[in-house]
């Protein structure tokens, strides 16, 4: 295999990185299906105030009609059927979800149900708002344009007869027993709030909610949850991963690479802690400019990797200059703020001591980061041992790809950060 094969490999590497760019730049649709549940301990049991998109009920609860328009199938709300079948809708909602207490399913009583079009729903952010939503007067839904079922929301109040002992509740979990109706949106946002003794736990989960969510995990359960969340967040943060990859490029000597990654980890651990305790600017200007700085840091790392010595010959280990390590730590500080924006609600779970929360999540982040760095180092070392020239060209291709991706991100994020005229 000659130069043409190496060139093709470099082009493939660049195409892969550009594909990652598209994935990182994509944003969820604002038209997604939603499921929001507030859980409230009461003397008569555990109340659940539920708001969900109608397609999340099997066959939309039997209150839809179908229409083929321009070759496409649409599901519309049958308003008369919805108003006549409120009780059945509530029962179907309760039966299509499962609350587990100590590993046993608990049947729910349906106390109230309402059906509303989007744009006519009362607020549902706080517990007081959720309490009122299921009992608020329903607007007149007769007349007007047909409404697709994905634009219809169901509010319900359920009561689970779960006893609370002196040691608190048994382990509680919540999940859905079915997916959305065929042809509905696949993008589902689930947010669960567990209110207890003035504390609030928030769980944000994507997908069908088929995997039970632990509502009151023990410290060990919370540790596992935050470890997994940290790993998932780092493995989904493409700009963060590409920067870690750039830290591996160059002479494949473990000690300098370990020092760079350690400095980076120290930096983003500090800013994650600042985000957890609210020690960072709260203005709307701050997040977009952090994203710009992250793209700029990736550009700097990629350009630095392009200048690195890639020779396979043994080299003496030189001590890392402190200014270089301080610069890497400063970049880690910025990347940590980028993570903190999306994680503040997850990390602020008041049921777990804040320092333990930060520790568990950060350990998950480091595990994901080390996994990627180790895999990249092993692959490059193996390629270097086999064909040293190919390893050098591969590193150059990766650095060029990261440069292109960072320039693309930098342009888009800079435009987004500029104030509107």
What would you note in describing this structure?
This protein has about 425 residues and is an alpha+beta fold. It is about 50% helix and about 20% strand. The chain has 11 helices and 12 strands. Strands 7-8-2-1-10-11 form a 6-stranded mixed β-sheet, sandwiched between helices. A 4-stranded antiparallel β-sheet has the order 6-5-9-12. The chain starts with a helix and ends with a helix. Mean pLDDT is about 80; it is low at about 10-30, about 310-320 and about 345-350.
Topology overview:
Blueprint: H1 3-25, E1 33-42, E2 45-53, E3 64-69, E4 72-77, H2 79-84, H3 86-95, E5 97-101, E6 104-106, E7 109-117, H4 127-133, E8 152-160, E9 172-176, E10 188-196, E11 199-206, E12 213-214, H5 219-236, H6 238-248, H7 254-276, H8 286-306, H9 322-347, H10 354-386, H11 388-417
Parallel strand pairs: 1-10
Antiparallel strand pairs: 1-2, 2-8, 3-4, 5-6, 5-9, 7-8, 9-12, 10-11
Keywords:
421 residues; alpha+beta; six-stranded mixed sheet; four-stranded antiparallel sheet; 11 helices; 49% helix; 19% strand; elongated
- Averaged pLDDT, please? 79
Straight-line N-to-C gap: 55 Å
Poorly predicted ranges (pLDDT <50, ≥5 residues)?
A: 8-30, 312-318, 347-351
> Which strands sit side by side, in order, in the main sheet?
7-8-2-1-10-11
Give the overall silhouette.
Answer: elongated
SSE-based structural type: alpha+beta
SSE string, helices as H and strands as E? HEEEEHHEEEHEEEEEHHHHHHH
Number of helices: 11
């Amino acid at each position: 295999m000659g130069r043409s094969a190496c060139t093709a490999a470099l082009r493939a590497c660049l195409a892969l990185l550009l594909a990652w760019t598209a994935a990182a730049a994509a944003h969820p649709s604002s038209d997604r299906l939603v499921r929001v549940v507030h859980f409230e301990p009461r003397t008569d049991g555990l109340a659940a105030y539920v708001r969900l998109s109608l397609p999340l009920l099997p066959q939309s609860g039997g209150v839809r009609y179908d229409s083929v328009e321009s070759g496409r199938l649409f599901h519309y709300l049958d308003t008369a059927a919805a108003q006549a079948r409120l009780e059945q809708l509530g029962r179907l909602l309760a039966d299509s979800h499962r609350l587990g207490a100590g590993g046993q399913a608990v049947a729910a009583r349906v106390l109230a149900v309402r059906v509303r079009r989007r744009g006519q729903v009362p607020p549902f952010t706080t517990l007081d708002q959720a309490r009122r939503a299921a009992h608020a007067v329903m607007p007149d839904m007769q007349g007007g344009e047909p409404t697709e079922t994905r634009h219809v929301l169901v509010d319900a109040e359920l009561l689970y007869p779960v006893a609370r002992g002196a040691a608190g509740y048994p382990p509680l979990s919540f999940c859905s027993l079915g997916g959305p109706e065929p042809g509905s949106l696949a993008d589902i946002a689930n947010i669960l709030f567990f209110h207890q003794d003035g504390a609030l736990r928030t769980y944000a989960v994507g997908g069908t909610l088929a995997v039970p969510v632990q509502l009151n995990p023990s410290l060990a359960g919370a540790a596992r949850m935050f470890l997994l969340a940290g790993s998932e967040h780092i493995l989904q943060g493409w700009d963060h991963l590409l920067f870690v990859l750039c830290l591996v490029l160059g002479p494949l000597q473990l000690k300098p690479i370990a020092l760079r990654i350690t400095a980076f980890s120290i930096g983003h651990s500090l800013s994650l802690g600042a985000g957890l305790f609210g020690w960072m600017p709260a203005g709307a200007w701050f997040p977009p400019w952090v994203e710009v700085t992250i793209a700029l840091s990736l550009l700097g790392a990629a350009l630095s990797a392009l200048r690195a010595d890639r020779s396979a010959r043994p080299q003496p280990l030189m001590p890392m200059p402190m200014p270089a390590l301080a610069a890497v730590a400063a970049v880690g500080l910025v990347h940590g703020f980028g993570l903190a924006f999306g994680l503040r609600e997850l990390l602020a779970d008041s049921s777990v001591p804040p320092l333990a929360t930060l520790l568990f999540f950060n350990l998950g982040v480091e595990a994901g980061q080390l996994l990627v760095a180790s895999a990249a180092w092993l692959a490059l070392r193996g390629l270097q041992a086999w064909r040293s020239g190919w390893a050098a060209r591969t590193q150059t291709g990766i650095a060029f790809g990261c440069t292109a991706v960072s320039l693309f991100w930098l342009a888009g994020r800079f435009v987004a950060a500029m104030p509107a005229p």
